[in-house]
Structure formats: structure tokens, C-alpha cells
Design brief:
The structure holds two protein chains of two kinds. Chain A has seven helices and ten strands. By secondary structure, chain A is an alpha+beta fold. The chains are: A alpha+beta, B alpha/beta. Chains A and B meet through strand 7 and helix 6 of A and helix 9 and helix 11 of B.
Chain lengths: 239, 473
């Protein structure tokens, strides 16, 4: 489905939140690198997809009503073989069903585990006065507490993307500390600019949350992502 | 000088001003604007209340009972009538083909009550239909120091202002004008624009971009109506002149206060900061910070460099000045070998130091030739981008009071240095126990366009924000 088809589909189901799989399809269409993520509905299916993708993999719950998947035990990382995939599948379904009896579960997603790199956040939100705003910050709990993020209005210019990445307080971490290789900053600039182009093109988008994006020495890839749509009546008027 | 053809041209350069509905016993608006008359402008009163007319005429103002009787085209009207009368006055102004009006009258949407909201709507619709320039309502209107138009009896009349200020708050507009004057700086134009039902911040900003008299633009903003237009206009303004933007409502509680003050939506602080950087504006957080930044913009040469030569009088101050400037991101590097050689040839290192920062009172001994020598060496040092000197009222005030010629000689030396140097140079002088005397000294220095800051922290913040954009050349 193209992004506009996804929007139509979500609206037909009265949803403004796109699932991780839908979001990542849209991101890929927009030229934003994201891990390929496949929906499965059985443990056997999960193993088959994991074998195709290659280990290690990540399994995550897919349910419209759940926005914070790890909070409900819906995410298992770094799964290394087929037996572990089968266990993980059952484990996720059981845990989520126990915590939310009667919830509608679409299935489980399978994706490649991106092992090493620095976690960053790239996002977009709609400011009431100014419209679409792009955000950049480092991932992880500490940064959330310290509120160490930078913002710019969309559409971004190259210099804006460069400033956003370089003005956060935790910027030295991107140089690689304790023997880590430096992050590919150009890949981060490019991703910020692609998000900017995407939200400027589609006024249907209210929020984007790419959290985390894994930055390595040779690129950046969103390993989780969600897109929230505007109510149909509240679409931004892009000028 | 002006912006021919601009819709706000007559408003900012009035020949005829009328005050509508001024009241005794003070007749504040007529009295505020008496200088306009003294400078040859036509200042008229419009009042129909017989008891008020008497007081107005006793003060020597010409009163009319109808706007239609005013003999000249009205460029600017100050409206101070009760709120329910204001729609009628607006209609008369439109009929009289007046160019603009500021509505001091309040009690509109800011009250958040039905009648106020309805009256504001009525006023807005009538003005927009007629394409009439309304400032406010709920505002102090214009301060044009050169024309003699004033929103307060205390703000000075002056011809030499190059700073223009747009304020969503009347108080901040007046305070900025007064504090600037106390620091020896004058405004070109100031607008307190209140509820901004017709003319909004972007309209005024567009004029100031083109106004040749305005070299620096200051804004006090709580929130804007048309965010996209504001960003576009601000970005354009920053391409032409330095723009300093003081944001009100930086905290969550402060943002809540802006809602009841000007019914403004405030964006989260980090988003605002990001947008200011994107536009190329200088973002400030208080009145003093805004004035400090403007002072440096006006009186210093620019630099993108971060390497400072710091000249303190004593050891303790040499440490404190270094801490203050390094905390905001400046560096205080070692000087060149040549500088060290030259300084070492005469510097008194017993109780002093010529490393950077310099601890130099023991070497100077009040000798201006030595001061000149040190300034010249630092000025020539390629490792230094800007020079900042501490002056001590604690040590100096008694002598300066007894022998004013000592202070004058020092000032002459500093002015000579400034004239011959391409590097930024300014002074930090803590008032210590001599608050009133240091105000005099600061004004004396301001006349020579040497900026003096009251402490290291304020100087450092101003330098960090303003140095890349400074105008003095």
C-alpha cells in the first residue's frame, strides 16, 4: 500500500495510529531507512520469516490498542535460533493476553536485530502556532530526563539538520566513546531531511516517532517507528 | 527618511495627530504628545464632553467636537474612549480617511467575557473591511522619539535613535525605552501593539525591514497569530539587520500567564529556541539581557571568534572574569610568544601577571601610556579575537571623584584604542559601593560609544549572543 492508501485504510477503521509495520512501509516509501518488519500469526510462520531474515531477530506484539509495546511485555530482543523464536512468539502472546484480556491481537512482527550502534531519536510533532516541527535527540532513559533534544521547523535546510545534530549536549557520544566507532553523521542529516520532506508533502501526518534509530559508522536505520495521523478535519494547511 | 508607499508610512511619520477622548485632570495623552506640537506637528483634541473641553483648552490644545472638522489629513489617532464608544469612533476615523489609530481603550477579548469579545469582533470586522490600520486595542500605541509622539511622559525626545522595538506588552515597551535611555541609547520607533486585531507583529516588522532609520530590531513576543508568516518575516528581517527576540512565557507557568495577558498560545521553549536559530534571530530571556545585547550590537565590532584577551585589575577578578566568559563558551588562550616577550619587558609580575587573563593594576599604576601599550600588544596578537577590560570602582572611584581628569584620560586612551582597532572591545565595571557614581561613569562612556556592563556574567551572556552580529565598524 502507498502512504495515501494506508491513510485511507486506517481511517476506514477509525484509527489515527498506524501500526509499526504500516509506519515502516510508509517510511521506506519516503526513503527513510527502516528495518524490514513482517507480520506473522503463528509460531511456525515466525520461524520461517526469521530464517529468511537471518538471526538474531526481534519479535514484537502487533495490536492497534497497544502503543507502548515493551511496557506490556510485547517485545523480545536478540533471539538467536528457531527454538527461541517459537518460545518468544508464545511468550509474547501469552503475556499480552494475560495483561489485557480480550484485547484484539493482529499477530507478532519479526524483524532483524540491529546489534550495535548508538540509539538516537528522530521525530516530528505539530506545534499549534508554527506547524510541523522536526526533533532530534539521543535515545535512552537519561536523555528523556534531561530533555536534551533539538527542534527545527519543517521544511529543513541542510544547515538546519547539521545544527540539530550538533547542538545537543550529548553530542560527544556520537563521536564514539570507549572505543566505539564514530556515528555516520551524514546518514543522520539525510534521515532528518527525509522526514522533513515526508511531513511537508503529507499534511495528513500529525506525529512521527522513530525511536530508536540506530546510528552506526556506516548508516542509520529506524528499528521502531510510528506515525500518528491528524483527524480528517484537522489536517494541516501546508503553506 | 522613510519607506515611501508603505501602508504604515504616514503612521510612522505623522504630520497630524489627534487625541480622541482624553480626560482630566491629567489629560495624559495630550500632555505626552506635546513635544509633537513643539516640533511643528498638528496636535488636536477631539472631545465632546463640555467639562473636559474646558480643561483641554486651558492647557492650550485646540479641541474639535467632530473628527470631520479636523482641517488636515489625520495620520495618527490616539483613541481613549470607553470601549462601547470605540466602534463609532472607528467609523468616524474611516470616514475622515485617517491613516491609523491606536486604541488605548481596553476591555475587549482579553477580558474573556461576552461583551468584550463581541466588541472586539465588531471593531475587527469594521477595520478589516475598510482596510484601516488599527494598533491594539488594549495597547500604549506608538513612541516616535524623533517626531515627539510618546506613550509615556518619561521617555525622551531624541533624533539619534537607530533601535526599533515591537512589544506585545505596554509595560515592556515603556520599560525598554526607559532603560535604553538610562544607558545612553535612544529608540527610532517603538510600538506597543496589544491585542493586534488588525496590524500584527509581522506588519510592523515588514516596515522595519525597509526602514532606513532602523539598524537594530527588538521584539517582545508572547505568542503570534500567524506562525508561518511570522517565521517568514523574521527570517527576512534577520537577513537585513540584527533582530533580538525576547520571549515571554518561557516556563510552563509563564506560558499559562501569557494566556490571560494576551491570550497567546506559547510553544514549548525548545521549539521556540530552534525556530529562532533557524531564522537567525538573537534569542533573549529578559529585559536586561535584551538591553545588554542591543548595547553591544551598537557599540562593538563583530567577531565570529571565541578567543578572548581578558584584562583584570586584580588576581581575584582575573579568575572571576575568566570563569564567567568560559562558562558561556569562550576561550582564554595563551598569548603569542611575541606578546609575552613584549609584555615581559615591562610587566610587574610581583602581585601581577601577563599570562591571559592579565592581572595588571600593579603594572598600570594609573599610567595611560602603559595602558595604551598593553592594549596595542593584545590588539596585535593573532591569537586574540576580542578584548575585554575590567575596571574597578572599588579601587578607582575615590580617585576618579577627586581627580576627574584621571578618568577622562583613561577614557581618551580607550576611545583611541577603539578607533584604531578592528577587534571588539568593552568594559566591565562592577558598581561596588558606588552605584550612583558608576551610573554617571557608564553614561560618560556611553557617549563615547564604549559599552560598560555591571558584572562579568551579564557581559559574558551579551557577548555570546551579540558578538557575531555587532554593527560598529
Amino acid at each position: 500500500m502507498t502512504f495515501l492508501e494506508l491513510v485511507k485504510h486506517a481511517r476506514s477503521e477509525n484509527r489515527t495510529l498506524l501500526t509499526e509495520i504500516e509506519s515502516k512501509n510508509a517510511l521506506t516509501e519516503a526513503g527513510i531507512e527502516a528495518t524490514q518488519t513482517i507480520l506473522v500469526t503463528s509460531a511456525e510462520d515466525a520461524v520461517m520469516q526469521a530464517e529468511t531474515i537471518g538471526y538474531p531477530v526481534v519479535l514484537k506484539i502487533v495490536a492497534f490498542e497497544i502503543t507502548h509495546k515493551s511496557d506490556v511485555g510485547g517485545v523480545i530482543l536478540n533471539i538467536k535460533n528457531s527454538a527461541a523464536v517459537q518460545d518468544a512468539y508464545r511468550n509474547i502472546i501469552n503475556t499480552v493476553e494475560n495483561k489485557h484480556p480480550g484485547i484484539s491481537i493482529q499477530g507478532v512482527s519479526v524483524q532483524k536485530m540491529i546489534a550495535t550502534g548508538t540509539e538516537v531519536i528522530i521525530g516530528m510533532t505539530t506545534d499549534e502556532q508554527f506547524g510541523p516541527v522536526i526533533m532530534f535527540g539521543l535515545g535512552g532513559i537519561l536523555v528523556e530526563v534531561l530533555n536534551d533534544v533539538s527542534f527545527r521547523l519543517a521544511p529543513l535546510e541542510q544547515k538546519d539538520a547539521v545544527e540539530m545534530v550538533n547542538e545537543i549536549k550529548a553530542r560527544p557520544i556520537l563521536n564514539g566513546i570507549r572505543g566505539q566507532t564514530p556515528c555516520d553523521l551524514d546518514a543522520l542529516y539525510k534521515m532528518l531531511l527525509s522526514v522533513s520532506t515526508f511531513v511537508t508533502k503529507y499534511s495528513e501526518i500529525k506525529e512521527i516517532d522513530l525511536n530508536p534509530v540506530i546510528a552506526t559508522s556506516s548508516g542509520a536505520i529506524a528499528v521502531d517507528g510510528r506515525i500518528i495521523l491528524n483527524d480528517e478535519i484537522n489536517e494541516r494547511t501546508n503553506s | 527618511m522613510s519607506v515611501p508607499g508603505h501602508k504604515l508610512e504616514r503612521m510612522f511619520n505623522p504630520k497630524t495627530t489627534v487625541v480622541i477622548g482624553d480626560k482630566g485632570p491629567n489629560y495624559m495623552w495630550l500632555k505626552n504628545n506635546q513635544p509633537f506640537q513643539e516640533k511643528g506637528g498638528n496636535l488636536y483634541s477631539v472631545q465632546i464632553d463640555e467639562s473636559e473641553i474646558k480643561g483641554i483648552e486651558e492647557l492650550g490644545f485646540k479641541n474639535y467636537t467632530s473628527l470631520a472638522d479636523i482641517p488636515e489629513p489625520i495620520d495618527y489617532a490616539i483613541v481613549a474612549v470607553p470601549r462601547h464608544i470605540s466602534p463609532y469612533v472607528l467609523n468616524d476615523l474611516i470616514d475622515a480617511k485617517a491613516a491609523s489609530a491606536a486604541f488605548f481603550t481596553s476591555g475587549f477579548a482579553e477580558t474573556n467575557e461576552e461583551l468584550g469579545i463581541a466588541l472586539q469582533k465588531q471593531l475587527t470586522e469594521a477595520a478589516k473591511t475598510a482596510n484601516f490600520n488599527v494598533i491594539g486595542p488594549n495597547c500604549m500605541g506608538l513612541y516616535l522619539p524623533k517626531a515627539g509622539i510618546r506613550f509615556s511622559p518619561d521617555v525622551p525626545i531624541a533624533d539619534d535613535g537607530v533601535v526599533s522595538f515591537l512589544s506585545q506588552s505596554g509595560t515592556h515597551g515603556i520599560m525598554f525605552s526607559l532603560v535604553m535611555a538610562s544607558q545612553g541609547m535612544h529608540l527610532s520607533k517603538c510600538v506597543s501593539f496589544g491585542n493586534a486585531i488588525v496590524l500584527d507583529i509581522s506588519d510592523y516588522l515588514e516596515y522595519l525591514i525597509e526602514d532606513p532609520e532602523t539598524k537594530i530590531i527588538g521584539l517582545y513576543v508572547e505568542g503570534v497569530k500567524d506562525g508561518a508568516r511570522f517565521v517568514r518575516t523574521l527570517k527576512e528581517a534577520c537577513r537585513h539587520k540584527p533582530v533580538v527576540v525576547w520571549k515571554g512565557g518561557q516556563t510552563e507557568a509563564g506560558a499559562l500567564a501569557t494566556k490571560s495577558h494576551t491570550a497567546s498560545l506559547a510553544s514549548p521553549e525548545p521549539i521556540w529556541e530552534g525556530i529562532m536559530k533557524q531564522c537567525g534571530a538573537i534569542s533573549t530571556t529578559s529585559l536586561d539581557e535584551t538591553v545588554d545585547v542591543v548595547k553591544l550590537l551598537l557599540n562593538s565590532k563583530p567577531t565570529m571568534g571565541r578567543n578572548l584577551g581578558l584584562m583584570a585589575m586584580t588576581g581575584g577578578q582575573s579568575v572571576s572574569i575568566t570563569d564567567a566568559f568560559c562558562k558561556v563558551g569562550f576561550d582564554v588562550p595563551a598569548l603569542s610568544e611575541q606578546s609575552y616577550e613584549e609584555l615581559g619587558s615591562f610587566f610587574n609580575i610581583v602581585g601581577g601577571s601577563y599570562r591571559n587573563p592579565l592581572d595588571m593594576a600593579g603594572t598600570l599604576q594609573g599610567n595611560t601610556e602603559t595602558l595604551k601599550r598593553i592594549l596595542t600588544i593584545l590588539d596585535a596578537d593573532p591569537k586574540i579575537d576580542a578584548l575585554i577590560m575590567e575596571q574597578s570602582a572599588m579601587f578607582g572611584a575615590r580617585q576618579w571623584r577627586n581627580k576627574p581628569e584621571v578618568l577622562d584620560a583613561m577614557l581618551d586612551t580607550l576611545v583611541e584604542h577603539r578607533n584604531n582597532s578592528q577587534k571588539p572591545f568593552f568594559i566591565v565595571m562592577h558598581p561596588a559601593h558606588e552605584e550612583a557614581f558608576v551610573v554617571e561613569i557608564r553614561q560618560k562612556f556611553a557617549k563615547q560609544k564604549i559599552a560598560v556592563f555591571p558584572n562579568f556574567e551579564r557581559a559574558a551572556t551579551a557577548a555570546k549572543l551579540a558578538l557575531p552580529y555587532c554593527l560598529a565598524i
